Amino acid sequence: MLDTIRLSIFGTLLAVFAITSHAATEPKEVRLVIVSLFEIGEDTGDKAGEFQHWVENLPLEEIIPLPHGNHDLRWNEELGVLGMVTGIGTAKSAASVTTVALDPRFDFTNAYWLLVGIAGFDPADASLASTCWIDWVVDGDLGHTIDIREAPEGWPTGRFPFRAKEPYQDPRPASEGSVFHLNEQLTDWAYEMTKDLDLGDSEALATRRGLHTDFEAAQKPPFVTKGTYLAAMNYWHGELENEWANQWCEYWTGGEGEFIASAMEGTGMMTAIEFLAQADIVDRDRVMMLRSASNYTMQWPGATAIQSKRGENLGSYSAFDASTINAYKTGSPIVFEISKNWDIYKTTLPGQ
Questions:
Q1: What is the pLDDT of residues 264-281, one digit of tens each?
Q2: Which domain holds residue 238?
Q3: How far apart are CA 24 and CA 103, in angstroms?
């Protein structure tokens, strides 16, 4: 066992040494980074998670070992596009983005970053397999919590902001990582470029979304929209939690953000990006986020929250396959536009 451990450590050290030695003379200029959050199995040839459609269709054929990270990287030399998989959760996304950005094999000085993955969507705003360009990212974890049964009378929730004394305290405390506003110009450009895409439809999607008779948006075929993303490690679900998510996003964005998508990794990535930007390693204004609806964040009329939640699991969400496909359909035109027109977008942000 000890010899096996020693061999493993020695192999990793050799790989890291090879990386740093090679990168010293030949850093790759990255035009765009595709940030996926998980893959189910292999990168190709089996059931697709968030990464596989990018690997197979962009394509990202070259494998670049990442022994000190979550998942090996993928590269397209012609496009200058790097693909990565962070692992699920805020902590893993922050660590992974930092790990890759500090890798001496790459130059991220002018790189654009596209976080793209699935999410739960508010049925009041979008339908299954729809996609959403993100304007604000709000953290759902940083704060204080007491059980609502022990809360003072009149409190709408037992959750309240970090360093605050009550829910929705006015004025708001300093963010400290509770909210991030993405480059509005870049987000709007990506949305305008893709808003009229045909994302397809199916009988299965129509049947499932037909349960949500209380929301008009939930019953539409998949479409592209724009809105706010609540990032939380706690996988919440249900009508009451959905109401909290809307209020929490409205609070932290000063009423400018409309909650649509619920997932995990956005604030972790943005924390890493802001630290890296302080050292001029990355450009914070070149970050985009795209989420696609694998499921709804609350139950349909007549159902309970737990009935709805029990049917939603990784790999078998209501619109899992369609959402991963539509994430690629919506994000890939932006990737190709930037990469193939690098002579423009290297120095000039889209929309200027």
A1: 999 999 999 999 999 999
A2: 28-142+177-345
A3: 11
Comparing 60-69, 72-81, 298-307, 311-320, which segment has the lowest mean pLDDT? 311-320
As beta bridge partners, residue 161 has: 143
Instruction: Reply yes or no on whether the pLDDT at 8 is more than 50.
Output: no
DSSP-derived secondary structure for 140-168: SSSEEE--GGGSPTT-S-SEEETT-SSTT
Q: Which of 97, 77, 79 is nearest to 87 (CA)?
A: 97
> Domain containing 250 — which CATH number?
3.40.50.1580
pLDDT of the residue at 3: 44
Residue 194 placed within a domain: yes
Residue 308 carries which side chain, given as an amino acid letter?
A: S
pLDDT tens digit sequence for 238-265: 999 999 999 999 999 999 999 999 999 9
Residue 303 lies in a domain: yes
Q: How far apart are CA 343 and CA 110, in angstroms?
A: 12
Region of residue 251 (left: phi > 0; alpha: psi -120 to 50; beta: else): alpha
Q: Would you say how long the chain is, in residues? A: 352
Q: Nearest to residue 81, comparing CAs of 49, 38, 112?
A: 112
Q: Are the CB atoms for 49 and 32 separated by under 8 Å?
A: no
Domain membership flag for residue 109: yes
Q: For the chain, how many structural domains are there in total?
A: 1
42 three-state secondary structure: coil
pLDDT more than 90, % of the chain = 89
> Using CA atoms, how far apart are residues 143 and 267, in angstroms rounded to an integer?
14
For the question of whether the overall pTM of this predicted structure is more than 0.85, the answer is yes
Return the number of other C-beta atoms located less than 10 Å from residue 147's C-beta. Answer: 7
Is 166 contained in some domain?
Answer: no
Write out pLDDT tens, residues 317-348. 789 999 999 999 999 999 999 999 999 999 99
